[in-house]
Amino acid sequence: MVTKYAHSPEDIDHYNTDQMRQEFLMEKIFNPGDILLTYTYNDRMIFGGVTPVTQPLEIILDKDLGVDYFLQRRELGFINVGGQGIVTIDGDRQTIEPHDGYYVGMGTKHVCFESVDQVHPAKFYVVSTPAHKTYPTKKLAYKDSIAMPMGDQEHMNKRTIHKYIDASIMDTCQLQMGYTVLEPGNSWNTMPAHTHARRMETYLYLEFGSADTRVSHFMGTPENTKHIWLEPEQAVVNPSYSIHCGVGTTNYAFIWAMCGENQTYDDMDAVDMHDLR
Ligand SMILES: O=C(O)C(=O)C[C@H](O)C(=O)CO
Ligand SMILES: [Zn+2]
């Protein structure tokens, strides 16, 4: 597991391109047969990819977290962005279709990930946040997500936000998670931009419209923005003070996950277009 530290806005003001990438970008999330995780000091979120091929994979983190087992003091959300998979949660074995996932409550001892077809393996994007209470483990089906159409063609930001883990439909200690899909011919996400000083957020960009599509992700304070260029299936950490939005050379999708002070999705501070620098 890689550690990414927390930085003040004054610090990142001095970062060059390489430092921005080193501190905020995860260049590889899915590695066949492997688990790649990042621990950010921003609200202690752990996120990354579990990509089983021939063997089942389980996240084992005890000494790293000073606990007896990974989810002793944490909750977990995941969404499968690869082929059909299987997850066994404390002995309960379930098939996970592409774009479906799970919320796994604190206290769960074993979560085992498998692929059904090693030629087209499952890719589980996992996010875990500190928890204080056990809430029921729950299947997250794409069809049951809250679909919120946003934006319009004129502003090139027509997209649908699918909320998977949201306090309005289920119990969660602090994790919120969803999947946003841009329509073809649209390129801007989360524009107009916002911040939410009460929550940090990570973005995994994926499902780019063409092989040479690239996304430029914007972060930093509204009056002092930075950008990071991303390839498909790369992720970026956004501190609470940071805007988090992007533009693609074609359409694309992304999985966002948040945690922090509250669970109010709409608790956002809109940034006036005139204030962006
Ligand atoms: O497309 C969007 O806009 C989003 O998906 C925004 C994220 O959900 C977000 O930033 C929530 O705070
Ligand atoms: Zn946000």
Automatic annotation (TrEMBL):
Pathway: Glycan metabolism; pectin degradation; 2-dehydro-3-deoxy-D-gluconate from pectin: step 4/5
The protein's name in its UniProt record: 4-deoxy-L-threo-5-hexosulose-uronate ketol-isomerase
Native source species: Paucilactobacillus vaccinostercus DSM 20634
Keyword S-adenosyl-L-methionine: no
Co-factor(s): Zn(2+)
Catalyzed reaction equations: 5-dehydro-4-deoxy-D-glucuronate = 3-deoxy-D-glycero-2,5-hexodiulosonate
Function: Catalyzes the isomerization of 5-dehydro-4-deoxy-D-glucuronate to 3-deoxy-D-glycero-2,5-hexodiulosonate.
Enzyme Commission number(s): 5.3.1.17
Annotated InterPro entries: KduI, KduI/IolB_isomerase, KduI_N, RmlC-like_jellyroll, RmlC_Cupin_sf
Annotated keywords: Isomerase, Metal-binding, Zinc
Cofactor descriptive note: Binds 1 zinc ion per subunit.
Binding annotation for Zn(2+): H194, H196, E201, H244
The UniProt record lists the keyword Metal-binding: yes
Single GO MF annotation: zinc ion binding
Encoding gene, per UniProt annotation: kduI
GO biological process: D-galacturonate catabolic process; D-glucuronate catabolic process; pectin catabolic process
Entry-linked Pfam families: KduI
Enzyme class, UniProt record, top EC level: isomerase
UniProt xrefs under PANTHER family: 4-DEOXY-L-THREO-5-HEXOSULOSE-URONATE KETOL-ISOMERASE
Family, per entry: Belongs to the KduI family.
